[in-house]
């Protein structure tokens, strides 16, 4: 049973990576899930600074809070909330997959579309509500 | 020998909890913190978004409300645990050089711990510290 030593090593192709495949929506949503996760990770600095200044210094909190209220700050917050919701919908998709369901070609494509459309619509809804009640 | 005729069962590996010796702990923690963070984020998005149009004094008052503070504390603990093991997977996927990987994994834990403690301290101070 020592055949492993008698054969010369086979030069099989290495596993193909992203650049080999034609881009598909499912693949893009998977990549975006990871990118939004990483963005949310570093974006927690904003939450930490916002909370810390709120707790410690009225003047610095007014500065941070004021920046987040500016057009640039609002743009960052809209982007951050979209990343959060996209990651959330992507996560729900993973929960469905955890049950062993949803692996068919049609379902996978449907999940990808729902993740994208759901995240954009829910982000829009939240900010429409925010702006209409402020 | 093929697996079909082997006397070995997967139990051997389960008892040893696999090569990382932690079994399915990473997977399970990932899913639990995902579910918790999702529910807490949905509750907090409404609260935090409501501070957007308010001035600084009013925003601070919202953060000091007991229910908001408790939700924030839970969100911070769950969210930071989730993001730490998520970034761990990203590092393990892309950083293959052993030294750089160990350093990156260490920095990931440091960053997560700092974010968690700063946020927890701030929320507690807003509620208790005036």
Would you kindly provide a written description of the structure presented here, covering whatever features stand out?
The complex is a heterodimer of chains A (134) and B (130). Chain A has one domain: Up-down Bundle (3 helical TM bundles of succinate and fumarate reductases). In chain A, α2 crosses α4, α2 runs parallel beside α5 and α4 (71-98) packs antiparallel against α5 (105-133). With 134 residues, chain A is mostly helical. The mean pLDDT of chain A is 90. Chain A has 5 helices and no strands. The radius of gyration of chain A is 22 Å and the shape is elongated. Chain B is mainly alpha-helical and 130 residues long. Chain B has one domain (25-129): Up-down Bundle (3 helical TM bundles of succinate and fumarate reductases), CATH 1.20.1300. Chain B is built from 5 helices and no strands. Chain B is elongated.
Provide the descriptors you would attach to this structure in a database record:
heterodimer; A: 134 residues; mainly alpha; 3 helical TM bundles of succinate and fumarate reductases; 5 helices; 78% helix; B: 130 residues; elongated
Q: What is shown here, in short?
A:
The complex is a heterodimer of chains A (134) and B (130). By secondary structure, chain A is an all-alpha fold.
Distance between the termini of chain B: 71 Å
Return the CATH topology of chain B: 3 helical TM bundles of succinate and fumarate reductases
- Major β-sheet profile of chain A: none
Name the CATH homologous superfamily of chain B: Fumarate reductase/succinate dehydrogenase, transmembrane subunit
CATH architecture tag of chain B: Up-down Bundle
Give the C-level CATH assignment of chain B. Mainly Alpha
Mean pLDDT of chain A: 90
Residue windows where pLDDT falls under 50 for at least 5 positions of chain B: none
**Overall geometric form of chain A:** elongated
- What is the H/E string of chain A? HHHHH
The number of E-state strands of chain B comes to 0
Rg of chain A, rounded, reads: 22 Å
CATH architecture of chain A: Up-down Bundle
């Amino acid at each position: 049973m020592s055949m492993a030593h008698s054969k010369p090593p086979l030069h099989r192709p290495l596993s193909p990576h992203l650049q080999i495949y034609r881009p598909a929506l499912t693949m893009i949503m998977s990549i975006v899930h990871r990118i939004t996760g990483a963005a949310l990770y570093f974006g927690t600095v904003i939450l930490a600074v916002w909370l810390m200044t709120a707790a410690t210094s009225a003047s610095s909190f007014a500065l941070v809070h004021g920046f987040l209220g500016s057009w640039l700050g609002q743009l960052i917050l809209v982007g951050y909330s979209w990343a959060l919701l996209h990651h959330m919908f992507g996560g729900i998709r993973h929960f469905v997959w955890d049950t062993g369901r949803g692996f068919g070609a049609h379902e996978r494509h449907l999940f990808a579309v729902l993740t994208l459309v759901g995240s954009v619509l829910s982000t829009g809804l939240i900010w429409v509500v925010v702006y209409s009640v402020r | 020998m093929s697996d079909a005729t082997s006397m070995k069962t997967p139990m051997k590996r389960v008892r040893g909890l696999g090569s990382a010796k932690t079994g399915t702990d990473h997977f399970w923690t990932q899913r639990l913190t995902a579910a918790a963070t999702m529910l807490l984020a949905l509750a907090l998005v409404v609260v935090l978004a409501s501070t957007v149009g308010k001035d600084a004094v009013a925003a601070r008052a919202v953060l000091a409300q007991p229910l908001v503070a408790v939700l924030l504390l839970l969100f911070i603990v769950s969210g930071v645990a989730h993001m730490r093991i998520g970034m761990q997977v990203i590092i393990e996927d892309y950083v293959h050089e052993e030294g750089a990987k160990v350093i990156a994994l260490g920095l990931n834990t440091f960053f997560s711990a700092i974010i968690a403690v700063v946020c927890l301290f701030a929320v507690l101070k807003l509620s208790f510290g005036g």
